[in-house]
What does this fold into?
Amino acid sequence: MNPHFFLLSSPVTQERLTWIGECLRYYFIKLNPENFLHHAKADEGTFTFLLTGDALYSLHDPATVRLWENLLALPSVILICDRQELSLRGISIEGLKRKLPDQVIDHNRLGINGQQSFWNDVAKIARQHEQPIPSIIGYLQLDSPYMNRSPLYCVKCLQAAVEVHASVELYAYLDGIHCGHISQSPSDFDNIGDRLEDIAEKAAKRGLQSLMLSCSRCALARGYSTWDEGEGELVSSCTIRPYRIRNLNEMVERFGRNHIILAENSASLQIKKEGSSSSFSRAEPGRATPLLILVTGTPYGSERAFGAVSFAVACAGQGILTRVVFIENGVYCLTGSPVPAAKNIWFFNLQEVIDAVAGSADLQFFSYQPSLTKRGMAKNPKMNAVLDIGTSELGQMLFTVPKGHLAGHQRVLFF
Amino acid sequence: MIRLKMLLKKTPADMPVAFFVRRDQKDTVEVPFSRSGYEVGVEPAGTNRYRIVMTKKGAGR
It folds into this structure.
């Protein structure tokens, strides 16, 4: 069992590594001081960082390498790198490996097909968590294929999940819905649509479930849906066969369950609870897996920040404890006093949105002060629904949940 | 959902809000808002079309 892991695929900045490092220090010093003095047993207290894609450049840049070394100096921290993606980028981690041979790993696990893949390591870790049988591994996909490499990671992950005999669930949200468009025919890349269909087929052959849900709001916006009056369901003539366009609530209902859900940048952090188990039915109040959403991008350049808040509202509506932290460039969502949107209701001022949804049960908003300070900015004082937090509070939020919540782990999703 | 929450936020508490929705939208409005302080009236208004009237509970008393 790997109690805590981070999967990082996007560029990892100094700022991100700094707050992650500070939160881990909080974990070891404040929450688990015994582990700070003595390395944890193999099956507890271990932090695994799974690095692929552009996140690997952080192992090349001297400024971030130094921060990685600090992180790896903490007890029981392991770094598993995607060998293929390292080679593709021509990044060498030999220096780091020489210093920390037991903690920096780039020999990836062999799959059933006899080939090494980083995603076999990911699937093994995600599959190892205690969960109801049959095991499920989910993946939230936010980006479209070909312009972005993350859909390839998504299909590789789901493929590896089927190989470790886990049922798979894809949640396509925002531009992620494009992964399921029919008739994709890339000349220079893996065909994402075909690979998703293969995954559904292989899962069925092995007696596993595969569920591929895409958000109806996102699908409607992108021209995928036609309305079927008779069935009362959104249907589309331009998606691959396994795809299902459904209301966001139907997707979010899956998030109330306790399986591991990965994303391009995500984490799963164990919450230690005495006398409770993480194998439970979602139906009992307080047992839905809590969600921490980190809004890391600017508010208006893309749909991500709005999508994060919308997703958070839907999760809270399903009774999932959902905490949203504006951090890194996400703090720009809270700064300044944007001009009200006048009569154009189609233009969302994100501060108005936050103000409108704040106060909902199970939904809390926070701003990470060090990110504001770093940018020389202050939160709009009118945003009193958003509470200021520092490193200690963020650390506490990552590794604990309020009393009454009995879930065994917390999901962290970066938007 | 978000647009509706924004609309409700701007609407005086004693003023009902009425609108038409599809069936899938009705499901996301009726139960969640009934649980969070609103009287929610739902009337069928055609195939896959419903008229919703929402009033803040206790408004005008």
